[in-house]
Design brief:
The complex is a heterodimer of chains A (153) and B (148).
Chain A (H helix, E strand, L loop, with lengths): L7 H7 L8 H10 L1 E5 L4 E3 L8 E6 L2 E5 L2 E6 L4 E2 L1 H6 L6 E4 L3 E6 L4 H7 L1 H19 L16
Antiparallel strand pairs in A: 1-8, 2-7, 3-6, 3-8, 4-5, 4-7
Chain B lengths: L7 H7 L8 H8 L3 E5 L4 E3 L8 E6 L2 E5 L2 E6 L4 E2 L1 H4 L8 E4 L3 E6 L4 H7 L1 H22 L8
Antiparallel strand pairs in B: 1-8, 2-7, 3-6, 3-8, 4-5, 4-7
Helix pairs in contact in B: 1-2, 4-5
The chains are: A alpha+beta (153), B alpha+beta (148).
Chain lengths: 153, 148
């Protein structure tokens, strides 16, 4: 059992990912999350490595790097780790704390069940992932245009 | 009120997208979809344009084109139109039928509400969108945004 700081519910309420979720359900969600703190400079995820933990940033900043370049900045309300947490493939990017970073995490393999239990969160994640997909598609690199309709499930 | 062909339910029962959904709920879902048939060559979606319909292919095939180049092909059980249907902007690609193509579609902007009613499908779509994201990010190494 993890002890979360008293402010977790408030932090969740402030995140668009949890919009429309009632206080009772938020309390359940807070119970399912664990808390992790990282020092500035700490590498939390490494591109190409395995790992299926899912992260929500609640305080601090981090960078997303792939292919040796910084691709994005993360701050409070952002999430990361979802691709590998959902498809169990290698990490697609390296995430590094650029300040003291406080995250809420879902432990290994818990994301799938969590999404089914909290449909509003699943839908918010879908919206956010579609935005990320669109951004990756339109970021200019011609090869990025692998719009990949779909592999067969 | 849309009339669906008798075999629509059978198609959905066979589809991996709907495999976790029981028959009773599938029947309820069927009522929300409309059905359309496109001729070969028909441009169903155009890159850069808005549009709020979400399409699921039952029969036939289509090309996905970005800036005029074919980047993927779609067939039965594939879906398209989700970016604009979720009101996240204009279509990221064009979709052109390459054979007679039969689709189910959710009309204007109904996808979000549909997914709230059928969260299992939201989770399945999330999986597929994440898979698309991985393929874009790893093929180009240009993740404009995090994927992790």
């Amino acid at each position: 059992m993890t002890v979360l700081r008293d402010d977790v519910i408030g932090l969740l309420t402030a995140s668009p990912l949890f919009a429309g979720i009632g206080r009772g359900e938020l309390r359940q969600i807070a119970d399912q999350l664990e808390e992790q703190h990282y020092l500035a400079g700490h590498r939390i995820l490494t591109e190409g490595m395995s790992g299926i933990e899912f992260f929500l940033v609640v305080e601090g900043e981090a960078t997303v790097e792939s292919g040796g370049r910084v691709r994005a900045q993360l701050g409070p309300g952002d999430f990361f780790g979802e691709v590998a947490a959902l498809d169990h493939g290698p990490r697609t990017a390296t995430v590094r704390a650029t300040s003291a970073l406080r995250c809420l995490t879902l432990p290994n393999g818990a994301l799938m069940g969590f999404l089914l239990e909290h449909p509003r969160f699943a839908l918010a994640m879908l919206h956010a992932s579609v935005r990320r997909f669109k951004a990756a598609m339109t970021s200019g690199h011609p090869v990025a245009a692998t719009g990949r309709g779909e592999e067969k499930a | 009120m849309t009339v669906l062909r008798d075999d629509t339910m059978t198609h959905l029962q066979r589809s991996p997208l709907f495999q976790s959904i029981g028959d009773e709920r599938l029947a309820a879902m069927c009522e929300r979809f409309a059905e359309g048939v496109f001729r070969p060559g028909h441009l169903v979606l155009q890159q850069g344009t808005p549009g709020l319909e979400f399409f699921l292919i039952l029969e036939g095939t289509a090309d996905v084109l970005v800036n005029g180049d074919v980047v993927a092909t779609l067939g039965p059980d594939d879906f398209f139109g989700e970016v604009a249907a979720l009101r996240e902007g204009t279509h990221t690609a064009s979709v052109q039928a390459t054979s007679q193509m039969r689709c189910l579609y959710l009309p204007n902007g109904a996808l979000h509400g549909f997914l709230l009613d059928h969260p299992e499908l939201a989770v399945t779509l999330l999986h597929r969108v994440v898979r698309r994201l991985r393929s874009v990010v790893t093929s180009a190494e240009v993740a404009a945004l995090p994927g992790g």
